[in-house]
Amino acid sequence: MESLVLSKKNKNIKRDAFIASVILLVSAGPYFFWWLLSSPVFTLLKLLFVFICYKHSSIQKSDKGLIALFSFGAFWSVLIALIHGDANLFGLISQLSYVFFFYIFFTERQFAEKVFSYFLAIYVFIILFSVASWALASIGVLSPVRSMSFMQSGEKRTYDIYPFLVKEVGYDIRFYGPFDEPGSIGTISGLLLCITRFSFKKWQTWVLLISGVISLSLFFFVLVTIGLIWYILFVKRNLVVAGLICALLAVFYIKTSDDPILYTYMWSRLEWNDDSSSFNGDKRMTEEGDMYLRQIRGTSEYFLGVNNVEKFWQLAEGSSSYKVVIATQGLIFFILYVLYFLLFAWRKKTSFLAFALFCLVFLSNIYQRPAIYNILIMFLCSELAQIELAIPNRTVKRKLQHN
Predict the structure, then answer these.
(1) Each residue of 39-87: pLDDT tens digit?
(2) Residue 310: how many CB atoms within 10 A of its CB?
(3) What residues have CB less than 8 Å from 229, skipping those under 6 apart?
(4) Which residues contact 293 (CB under 8 A, 6 or more apart)?
(5) What pTM did the predictor assign?
(6) Three-state DSSP class for 302?
(7) Residue 389 CA from chain centroid, whole number
């Protein structure tokens, strides 16, 4: 009888984990779910995901401070929306639901790991077929099935649709996967590589790596390069391999610096621009949007968010930067949001190295792609904050203690 109850419980856990992983995929925004993203159904799916996390939650007394901080930040976001009057009733209800998103961070480890493994399997499966479609389309063997339009950061874009793949009309080189821009591939694949600790013995790792490379995502290259060297140097403590990777990167740069494609999409973006006092690739915000933000600096709008969000988006159309969050939500909210993640990572850290890696990845991600309250990014950040980065000799010592 007990075994039957256990079996039923395991089936329920697997069912819930699979449903949660599919909702995470929807949140990633592949083209076959674009129709859902702007509908009330998507809000209901997010609430279902949070409810599943609640069912499998594990909250300690020491977690209550973090929960209070997260909830306060969510309430603050709703308050800002009310002050500016830029949300309808359904929008406010949707924002109010963010208060309960803290359950995403406090699910039982075994359940969270199962959700992650299901999502990883689904994502890699889709990307594998997407890479195949991209290769066939690139040599002219595969033709688009149809065309679709999609609003991205306030800008309407048109895409050719292939099996598990989209290609923006007029941009034929970079790999978009099933998403609206290559940066989505770079962000998700890069985060997954960090969470799985660059496990090159697994074929799934190579799919993630190849997808990120052919996306020509600057974020992916910078994140994976720094993350991999960090992992090998400080966790594996292998100075020779770390040095070899640096040498290979130097040779790769020398051999490809004159290549027109790689120069346009990668090397030129790493060049310093004296006029803007930034790297050429650091163009996540339009000049007009940047100027508007500088003009309101120090005012109540800077701390509480701009009064006219519609006007801001007209100036910052297509922008994707942490500055967008400051403009629309205010600096106070932005600080609360970042503070929560850093405190959560510090509270859940398995080692200082793991915390340092989290800070590197999280701050890099929010700098270029601040997907506030995106359940996939929140879930992946939660997983990243709790990964085990044990130094080899300590791992051996820990095993001996357990034995």
Answers:
(1) 889 989 999 999 999 999 999 988 999 999 999 999 888 888 777 766 6
(2) 9
(3) 242, 245, 246
(4) 285, 302, 323, 326, 327
(5) 0.88
(6) helix
(7) 20
